[in-house]
Amino acid sequence: xxxxxxxxxxxxxxxxxxxxxxxxxxxxxxxMDTYLPLLEALLELEEEDTVSxxxxxxxxxxxxxxxxxxxxxEMDSFFRQRLKACDEAPASLAETGDQDLLTLxxxxxxxxxxxxxxxxxxxxxxxxxxxxxxxDARLEIISSAATHGFLPLLGREESVRLQxxxxxxxxxxxLGREPRxxxxxxxxxxxxGEWNPIPGVSRNRHRDGLENFLSExxxxxxxxxxxxxxxxxxxxxxxxxxxxxxxxxxxxxxxSRERTGTPARSAYQAxxxxxxxxxxxxxxxxxxxEASMQVWSRQLGYPGDxxxxxxxxxxxxxxxxxxxxxxxxxxxxxxxxxxxxxxRYRASDxxxxxxGLLGHIQRKARVGPSGVAMAPFDTELFGHWWxxxxxxxxxxxxxxxxxxGVVAVTxxxxxxxxxxxxxxxxxxxSWGANGDFSMWLNEGTRWTWERLxxxxxxxxxxxKRALDSEETKPILAQxxxxxxxxxxSDWQFMISTGAVPDYAEKRFNxxxxxxxxxxxxxxxTATREDLANALERVHELQDRDDLFPNILxxxxxxxxxx
Length: 562
Hints:
Blueprint lengths: L1 E8 L14 H24 L6 E5 L1 H7 L2 H27 L6 H20 L4 H10 L3 E6 L12 H19 L6 E2 L9 E3 L9 E3 L2 H8 L3 E4 L17 H7 L22 E3 L8 E5 L2 H8 L43 H25 L7 E7 L10 H11 L7 E2 L2 H7 L28 H22 L5 H14 L2 H9 L3 H20 L7 H17 L6 H11 L1
Parallel strand pairs: 1-2, 1-10, 1-11, 2-3, 3-4, 7-9
Antiparallel strand pairs: 5-6, 8-9
Helix pairs in contact: 1-3, 1-4, 1-5, 1-11, 3-4, 6-7, 6-18, 10-11, 13-14, 13-16, 14-16, 15-16
């Protein structure tokens, strides 16, 4: 049986949108907690000549931020901030009588300095470092939609095409090769058929299945959740849906679906989506349920182990973490000091268990050599949410070569060995709460779609006309960027979870406002003053939202396809 570890790396565009807590510090924290430690682990495995074939997704919006010179400046500042916190921590701990935590200050300082050294060694070029590993056949990098737009709910076919066309071309530009795989945002899929998610607001019409758009864009495979293949129940992202189902009102528009009941298909093979023998055929990998929950779930799996670092307890103003999980029912005030060595040993134990679990699954499910267990995770789970997660991955790849019957490969390597043959028409769904679209379309987010759909119409009505004039092309290009940024699925997600709804609403509205202002200057009734004001605004926005430099090429391509 093949094992395909798929990591999905994504953050919305936060550069030039403030720093703490949801501006550039968000990106810098993910880099320090996850991206650099992951790179460090992969380089160590390479040096040991240990096979570690990660299928690593990097969304185009994240890749653009990592490639931006301002990211390097923000990271340099962030490292200085973290090291300063370590310098000031001893005096702060002495004031409160917590000198027993001083050894952890030394631990954090050593870690920050080590990661800072790695960042300088690669000259701040994370994308280049991962690209070199791909060139050396150490991993496979895949792409996604441009800004992680929730594709099934976008109002126009052209909008779906633009998200994917930009995703494909930006991957080529920044990573040097065509991507074979695509992480459809939120693993969301819509089959062909009638589309009317908000009766009376959306237009009731026939829409193509997303597989057509993925194939048309040039992708060869994508990923779906277990229930969408009728291979099991919806898992959610953590295996515990109770935390959010009441908040998002699953019976509202877009919020209900039938459960699949008894699995009708195996979760241990890739399926063919499309007409067999078609050159535009697309493979779908199915999320493996049992092993996935061991890593995802704090309640049921490894991350909740008492030895691991407690994510939620932070000492201010330093921002350093000194405490372990201790126990699932232990109050934050009673957490015991973190013991890094114990946590590292526990990660090793869990890696051994996980490798054994894969072997057990292979035997129990009677999965032959052509079978595949695909385990997908947000990359940021490892290191950020589960601090020891990268240690776990490193140890897992050290153990898998000794697990008979289980071979780690990339997604493309599996398809090269065993092309998908069994056909499937996936069910509508996502890997979010309830397995449907209710995390992104519910009573609390309906207004975002009611604003976004007319904005899409205005953009595509203006696009062909604006492309005919050199004077209006810069306005159209920036309007396209603002539209794509407004389409990010992150905004509805943050509103629905209730974590930072004010920030999400503000960002959504800012991008819609700017797109509307620019499109107003492209209207047939626009004046020369409107055009001059729009061009001035374009220069301001190009500095703030500095991404997708070749976006008009994709707009022209979409209009040609239409």
